[in-house]
Amino acid sequence: MGVGEGEWRLGGAKGGRLAARWWKWAMSAPREHSPVFDTTGREAGWRQPDDLWFLAGSHGGRVVRRCAVPAGRPVFFPVLNTQRAAVPFVTGPWALDVARASAALNSAPLRVSEFSSKTFLVRGVPRVAWGLWCGLTPLPPGHFVLEINAAATDGFTVDTTYHLTVTDPAG
Questions:
Q1: What is the pLDDT of residues 131-165, one digit of tens each?
Q2: Which of 91, 96, 114, 121 could link 152 by a cystine bridge, Cβ 3.0 to 4.6 Å?
Q3: pLDDT tens-place string over residues 91-125
Q4: What are the distances in angstroms from CA 160 to CA 62, 65, 88, 95, 101?
Q5: Does pLDDT of 1 surpass 80?
Q6: Are 52 and 74 in contact (CB under 8 A)?
Q7: Residue whose C-alpha is closest to residue 92's, from 100, 103, 84, 81
């Protein structure tokens, strides 16, 4: 795949809706099944939606995960993101000051897009989200390496490598 191939170009409204869906998914998992807390990829398939595939972010630092992704599903994942309770009279979500942010699939750079969500509910609490995100159109069966690298100016870093095996459900 060359630069730009396989990228899922998302507009701001759709990206914001996907960011809210991602956070609902990520925050709904109990810690022992959380794809975000998982450092191996073992929990990557936890309650995935039927129409796309989420890849988990992390709580920072170096993480290497291996997981299978079904063919035919677009993939959506954070490069650097955050969320908070929606507080009255605050007009936008809390954003991180970004020092750097990149993602690459098989060494080809991916477009990183900034999305903010509208208010959404998690366990009855209104929340808003901000982040730098990437999307991929459905990948063909095979093996892929996804590298995510980001840092906020406060010293928080993300250094995640996914070894993805895209599987053909037809066998």
A1: 999 999 999 999 999 999 999 999 999 999 999 99
A2: 96
A3: 655 789 999 999 999 999 999 999 999 999 998 99
A4: 6, 8, 35, 21, 12
A5: no
A6: yes
A7: 84
